[in-house]
Amino acid sequence: MVNAHCHLELSCFRGAIPPQVGMVEFIRNVVSRRDDYPREVQIEQAVEEDRAMWRSGVQAVGDISNDTTSFPAKMRARDEGRTRYHTFAEYFGLPAEEEAEAFYRRAVDPLLEAGAEAGLTVTPTQHSTYFVSDRLFRLGADSPRMSIHFMETPAEVDFFDRRGGIYDLVTASAGREPDFLGYGGHARRLVESLPREAHLVLIHNTQMQREDMELILDHFAEVTFVLCPRSNYYIDADFPPAQMLFEAGARVALGTDSLSSNTSLSMVEEMRWLLDHNPSLPLEAVLGWATQGGARALGLDTEMGSFSVGKRPGAVLLSGIDFTTLRLTEAADSLRLV
């Protein structure tokens, strides 16, 4: 299996933020409480969660990093021949245009340099379409692979109409109105700011409408929509558009997000939740999203994600399948065999 979206560095946050507080309050909690845990405890927890994912059959992870807290866990996984990580060096902020390049370098270079020294794969990525100034967003447009939080929450739906909790939060943070409202929408900002050949991974997508999806699919040749259903429900009691994406034949992958917005980093629980809330969704499709879909999203599909000659995908025993309904039961679990 491939966990296409995780924040391993937030593993200390298990149970720290109450469920369904809404995205604005969730962001405030993460920002204000991030230093509550000593760095050595954060590192130790990241190592523990990495090992748990490996035991459950996760072969690779697309992981968001704002600092190097998770790097020791990733290095240990590499040295022990376990989980493959693609680290996305995430940046966000609304600096003035003339300050954007220096801001970008300060945010991204330390992670790229640390990754190079550690032998880890690291590429820059914008946080979202709402928390990155125009010039800053475009500075990352040539990144080999991007993982962008996209239309995740109801609080950002009216952002480009100068309304909503995310608009108020971003405006207050910057002390001025964002300089990218002229795009008129989140999807429009993507297609007008990033090249067609970009390798793009869009995370969450709960508020994405069909016209947004079609605009994105028409523009980008290589785009994967990652769903993290339990995280969406934990923060906003929301649901991703799984059936719409399936019917469109879009590339889809699954992720767990972090323990700040989830109770575990279990891919099986993500699959079970998604199937329980989408009765028309085939089990076969969801299994593909949890394996091949994630491998392709991270550019690892020549190495893993399916069984074929020359690949090393690992083998997982998935238990708790109701073969009459082709659904996962509450007893569903996974165990690495190889």
Polypeptide structure, described:
There is one protein chain. This protein is α/β, with parallel strands linked by helices. Helices cover 39% and strands 18% of the residues. It is built from twelve helices and ten strands. It has helices spanning 23-33, 39-56, 71-79, 100-118, 134-139, 165-174, 186-193, 210-219, 229-236, 242-248, 267-276, 283-297, and strands spanning 2-6, 60-65, 84-91, 121-126, 146-150, 199-204, 222-227, 252-254, 316-322, 327-336. The strands form three sheets. Strands 1-2-3-4 form a four-stranded parallel β-sheet. It has a four-stranded parallel β-sheet with strand order 5-6-7-8. Helix 3 links the parallel strand 2 and strand 3 (84-91). Helix 2 (39-56) packs across helix 3. The longest helix has 19 residues, at 100-118. The mean pLDDT is 97.
